[in-house]
Design brief:
Strand content: 5-15%
Number of strands: 3
CATH architecture: Orthogonal Bundle
Oligomer: single chain
CATH topology: Arc Repressor Mutant, subunit A
CATH class: Mainly Alpha
Largest sheet: 3 strands, antiparallel
Distance between the termini: 43 Å
Number of helices: 6
Structural class: alpha+beta
Helix content: 55-70%
Order of helices and strands: HHEHHEEHH
CATH superfamily: Winged helix-like DNA-binding domain superfamily/Winged helix DNA-binding domain
């Protein structure tokens, strides 16, 4: 899959940022935090896992956890991009107007 296909989804970007900031999370927690339904979260998580960016851990029969794949060069690059972007983020227009 091409990079633009993986990173073209705002939802996938939110998932990646959440897992970078909060670490390992249960699929239901991911869905709740980014305000999407379980099925949509599952679809995005499976795509990111198929690219090697995430790792899924299953505990018991149905307890699914996801985290960034620490051994994936793609995951490392995405984490670096998130960190650089957040460090250099410009204030939005309303924040600039309030100063």
């Amino acid at each position: 899959m091409d990079i633009e296909d993986v990173l073209s989804s705002k939802t996938r970007i939110k998932i990646l940022k959440l897992l970078d900031q909060k670490g390992q999370r249960h699929i239901s927690d991911i869905a709740r935090r980014i305000k999407i339904n379980y099925t949509a979260a599952d679809k995005h998580l499976r795509l990111l896992e198929s690219e090697g960016i995430l790792i899924e851990y299953t505990y018991g029969v149905r307890f699914r956890m996801y985290r960034l794949n620490e051994t994936s060069e793609k995951a490392e690059i995405i984490q670096n991009l998130i960190h650089l972007w957040e460090q250099n983020k410009q204030p939005n227009r309303s924040e600039r107007n309030n100063k």
